[in-house]
Design a protein that fits this description.
Layout (H helix, E strand, L loop, with lengths): L1 E2 L8 H10 L9 E8 L3 E2 L3 E4 L10 H5 L2 E3 L2 E5 L5 E4 L1 H14 L7 H14 L11 E10 L11 E11 L9 E6 L16 H16 L4 E5 L7 E4 L2 E7 L6 E5 L9 H12 L3 E5 L3 H10 L2 E8 L3 E10 L2 E4 L7 H14 L10 E3 L2
Parallel strand pairs: 1-4, 10-11, 10-17, 14-15
Antiparallel strand pairs: 2-3, 2-4, 2-9, 5-8, 6-7, 6-8, 7-19, 8-9, 11-12, 12-13, 13-14, 13-16, 16-17, 17-18
Helix pairs in contact: 3-4
Bound molecules: pyridoxal-5'-phosphate.
């Protein structure tokens, strides 16, 4: 890979302060990766360059027609000081699927992972050391053909940036949700399964509506019947039924409109490893209310790479408000979270071969 090193890398004290500051996406590492594609010449050699702004023509396709996709994953410090990624092949495959849906070029799994490894190795001092902390990696790709004609772009640019993520973002207190039956995130045949920026752009007004209802997050239902629970904001959902060793973890089934989360998929296995039953099923708004009211649903949480696991407390919808738990993560939510973090940080056995060593 071609590389141009940053001559103005942040000094140790600045870097330490920025890592300690935490948050999500506030500071970026010293380098980034860029790679250009054209229909004529295919993918060019990726380049490692100093992190910084890029210049694009105002008529660049992505600004007008939102032909863009992204991924999100984390690199974790290991007990011996090394650094590992969690299931990067799954992100690479999903990136390729998103690319196909948005008529963008596909990058091979190997090339995608090579860009991650190169940036992590170069900026390894940015990987935090504590459990729950990590280096968040954001690969993305967008249409760069210049012109206002509506057609699949004949040029695209791939980029990879990285930002230290602190435990701070992994919310420990329960969020309240507004179940939106007015706005929908995705419909069959649409882009719900693809990780594209456009899905998020279309979701912001519903997020605003949730805030107006006094809720932290929006929960999406299906577009057709407006009753089947799909996701919460940019995270997948889990419902814990029952208690103790007999508990069952259920998550909404992938119908073609949900984003297939890698955390969601991992929890299906982790739950079984811990002796629980896990199932993918259709869950309606009524099931949610009835389950909470009867006491069958004991815990609810949302999951995704960025926040790992976030407990869900009160749910508000057109048919009422009902509350699960006491605002703190329930025992099974906490257990799943610490088991998953343990695998990622190398303190719990990685039975499924999920960890990918980089350094
Ligand atoms: C990224 C994302 C998720 C979570 O996926 P992970 O692979 O677990 O990070 C869930 N829903 C949406 C809409 C997403 O964009």
């Amino acid at each position: 890979m071609k590389s141009t090193l940053n001559l103005h890398m942040k000094d140790d004290a600045t870097r330490a302060a920025q890592i300690a500051e935490g948050g999500f996406g506030r500071h970026y590492t010293d380098h980034m990766i860029t790679c250009h594609w054209s229909e004529k010449d295919g993918w060019q050699e990726p380049e490692l360059v100093p992190y910084g702004p890029i210049t694009l023509d105002p008529a660049t396709a992505v600004f007008h027609y939102a032909q863009e996709i992204f991924e999100g994953m984390k690199a974790y410090r290991q007990p011996d000081g090394g650094v590992s990624l969690f299931r990067p092949e799954a992100n690479a495959r999903r990136f390729a699927k998103s690319a196909a849906r948005l008529a963008l070029p596909q990058m091979s799994v190997e090339s995608f992972i090579e860009t991650l490894e190169t940036l992590i190795k170069q900026d390894s001092t940015w990987v935090p050391n504590n459990i729950g902390e990590s280096l968040y990696l954001r690969p993305f790709m967008f249409a760069t053909e210049v012109g206002l004609g509506v057609r699949p772009s004949n040029k695209a640019m791939y980029m990879l940036i990285a930002t230290p993520a602190s435990a701070y973002f992994s919310s420990n207190s329960a969020v309240s949700v507004w179940i939106s039956t007015e706005y929908v995130r995705a419909a069959l045949g649409g882009t719900g399964e693809a990780k594209c920026g456009g899905n998020y752009a279309a979701s912001l007004v519903a997020q605003k509506a949730a805030a107006k209802e006094g809720c932290d997050q929006v929960v999406w239902v299906d577009a057709l019947e407006r009753k089947w629970i799909e996701e919460m904001g940019g995270m997948n959902l889990y419902f814990v039924k029952g208690k103790g060793a007999d508990a069952t973890l259920v998550t909404p089934k992938l119908t073609g409109t949900l984003l297939p989360g890698i955390t969601r998929d991992s929890i299906l296995s982790v739950a079984r490893d811990l002796g629980y039953t896990s199932q993918e099923v259709m869950i309606s708004i009524d099931d949610w209310r009835d389950g909470v009211e009867s006491g069958e649903i004991t815990e609810i949480f949302a999951c995704g790479t960025a926040a790992v696991i976030t407990p869900v407390g009160s749910a508000k919808s057109a048919i009422g408000t009902w509350i699960t738990g006491d605002g703190q993560p329930g025992p099974i939510t906490a257990q799943i979270r610490s088991h998953l973090l343990g695998i990622q940080h190398g303190t719990v056995e990685d039975k499924h071969g999920w960890m990918h060593r980089v350094i």
